[in-house]
Design a protein that fits this description.
By secondary structure, the chain is an alpha+beta fold. The chain starts with a helix and ends with a helix. The protein is globular and about 70 Å long. The strands form five sheets. The chain has a four-stranded mixed beta sheet, with helices on both faces. A three-stranded parallel beta sheet has the order 3-2-6, with helices on one face. Helix 2 packs antiparallel against helix 9, helix 3 runs parallel beside helix 9 and helix 6 packs parallel to helix 7. It contains 14 helices and 15 strands. The site of pyridoxal-5'-phosphate has 14 residues, from helix 4 and helix 5.
Length: 392
């Protein structure tokens, strides 16, 4: 029953769905007085995420950005090093590089699946770097290349084998930013269970949320122990306040982890819902000139965390930004992709190369409403507006 009133209710881009055991688990925290960073839900949440992702170890963090900072520090990224980072991503991984006094080098996206271009990584390392004593240095800056951070954007995995092969050949550690890709599969296996450190985020608009939160997964016990140590101010004694390093207060609280445990119980349903929403958009726009949904690689199972279309201005008769305004006028929230980081005023202190693919995707892409709880009638409203406004 879609009434006139329904037509006016705002359809948000992506909001949390909190209809499982969230209340019960939060109440349990309050009833047991475990609200802070000690408590049974933290460990339980770590186990749930590790098991789901197929990771051997998982360490909860206060948010995904903190997780990236931690993972890069544990990869031995140092001041004045350089780190290869996807150009087309939310800004957090580049900021985390700067927190360590190192510099991001932005790698363009490949045009098919929009992820970090493995061929561009290879070209950079082969043509613009030199290897001395087993270490790789940029010819341009003389700085050491300390790590590679591929970001699995929008729920779709990067071509991990290709990137890991190159990284292995040059002996450079990989830290995967999987903030947007919990549950995504690469060649049948979920992201996070591989041989790299991998970082997840549970911010409000992510697939599952803890309000704010993150997780670092790793196959290595030593790395996991070191990560846990650094998240708790590197406290080195069980009773005495003695600290052996400069650590961080990066632990997740029991309250947040309680939310996370309830959310993890529903994670598969949320993924199915996201995938069904994307499939419906794909079918609905199949015959609409100028509108195409983000593709999925043969080796990938995307969660379609955000259903994102490309708007071809010539074919559709309107730019992605103009369509955003039309949707907004109809009380429908949509969102462009992130400004490619080589263009970001926050990261202009260092030489950057052009990233034309990232630029093109930035100008033409638009993410559409895709909350896991999106109703069919709401999605129909979005589809109708996109279909009816083509100027051709
Ligand atoms: C959300 C996100 C993060 C981390 O965000 P937090 O809000 O710090 O949890 C990092 N990288 C990417 C690509 C993200 O989308």
């Amino acid at each position: 029953m879609s009434s006139e009133l329904d037509q006016k209710i705002r359809i948000p881009l992506s909001v949390p769905q909190l209809d499982g055991n969230e209340w019960a688990y939060l109440k349990e925290c309050l009833d047991t007085n475990f609200v802070s960073s000690v408590g049974p839900f933290v460990e339980r949440f770590e186990h749930l995420v590790a098991e789901f992702a197929g990771a051997r170890h998982a360490v909860a963090t206060v948010n995904g950005t903190a997780g990236l900072h931690l993972a890069l520090r544990l990869s031995d990224v140092r001041p004045e090093d350089e780190v290869l980072v996807s150009a087309l991503t939310f800004i957090a991984p580049a900021n985390a590089v700067r927190y360590l006094g190192a510099w991001p080098v932005f790698i363009d996206a490949e045009p098919h699946y929009w992820q970090m271009d493995a061929a561009a990584v290879e070209r950079f390392l082969e043509e613009q770097c030199v290897t001395r004593d087993g270490k790789v240095y940029s010819r341009l800056s003389g700085r050491r290349i300390a790590a590679i951070v591929p970001v699995h954007i929008l729920g779709h995995p990067v071509d991990l084998d290709a990137i890991c092969e190159i990284a292995g050949r040059f002996q450079i550690p990989v830290v995967e930013d999987a903030s947007e890709a919990l549950g995504a599969r690469y060649r049948g296996r979920r992201i996070g269970g591989g041989c790299n450190m991998c970082v997840f985020s549970f911010n409000g608009n992510k697939l599952i949320t803890t309000g704010g939160g993150g997780m670092v997964t790793t196959p290595c016990q030593t790395v996991a122990t070191a990560a846990r140590h650094l998240t708790t101010q590197a406290k080195a004694h069980p009773h005495e306040y003695e600290h052996d390093q400069v650590g961080y207060n990066y632990r997740l609280t029991n309250l947040q982890a309680a939310l996370g445990c309830a959310q993890m119980e529903e994670v598969c349903g949320k993924i199915s819902a996201k995938q069904a929403i994307a499939a419906r958009y794909r079918t609905a726009f199949e015959d609409l000139p100028g509108i195409t949904l983000m593709p999925e690689a043969g080796w990938a199972e995307s969660t379609f965390w955000l259903s994102t279309i490309l708007v071809d201005e010539r074919e559709y008769g309107m730019s992605s930004r103009a369509l955003r305004e039309v949707l907004d006028g109809e009380n429908i929230e949509s969102r462009p992709l992130w400004q490619p980081l080589q263009r970001s005023p926050a990261h202009q202190a260092f030489f950057h190369r052009a990233c034309p693919v990232a630029d093109h995707l930035w100008r033409t892409a638009l993410s559409l409403p895709c909350s896991a709880g999106l109703r069919e009638a709401e999605q129909s409203r979005v589809i109708d507006v996109v279909r009816c406004n083509r100027k051709g």
